[in-house]
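Appendix B. Raw example, untouched.
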Amino acid sequence: MIINTNLHTGGGDEKKVIFPIVEHMGKHLKNVLLAKNYGGGVDEFLIIPYAVFSDEKENSEFAKPSHKIQRTKDYYGDKGWIKTIVFALPFNPDLVSKMDCEEFRILLCNTVLERLEDPQMKILKTFNYEIFKKDVAKEIVLYRDNIKFK
């Protein structure tokens, strides 16, 4: 399984905080679970911070359609199409723009850990979510606690 990151912002100052962390996180986590297979045909886990609207409800509603298991193009292999678990995580862009990158890195990690406990999506019966959750949580904690943003 590949762990990837992306971002969706409103294009303000929040992007200056989120973009470097999304790249940093992706660089460090991309291949840590490469040899793992959790079943269900799921090959990718995608973490996407959404910081578009200051209104929490509006931002959550905007991110919600992306927060699911979806079929995506395989940009890193030769499978054609793969199943991806997408965690679309809403953040208030006004609050994020006042953070430094390290503060946001910790917040993003903690948010992923919380969402792993309550994924808020239908999980495929053939996907071993419990083992996936344990493995991803371990890697997120190692990243959060040991790989600081410079």
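End of appendix B.
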